[in-house]
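Notes from the 1:1 (GR / supervisor)

We went over the backlog. Supervisor wanted to see one worked example end to end before approving the batch request, so GR pasted a single chain during the call. The sequence is below; no edits were made to it. Supervisor asked that the structure be written out right there so they could see what the output format looks like.
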Amino acid sequence: MDYTGWLVNMAPGFTALFILLLIWSLIWKGVALWKAARNCDKVWFVLLLIVNTMGILEIFYIFVFSKREKTCCEDKEIKSEEKTEDKKPEKSKK
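Structure output shown during the call:
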């Protein structure tokens, strides 16, 4: 059985629906991945990258979970460096 062009051979309505769902999912996934990266949510980034729910999980992340108080990745790194510098004892010069 020849499976080449299976999408074209299906009903035109199915093809249009498939393309719309693909575009819909890619837009939401792109926005959600961008927000997860900006919020330094590594777990959410990987989850959103792997799991495909046609935009449902992505919409929940964008409107619910990304609203938490977050600082930028660079700010977290700077703050952690400041904390470690404060804890280091100063060496006396002899």
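Supervisor's comment: The chain is about 65% helix and 0% strand.
Batch request approved.
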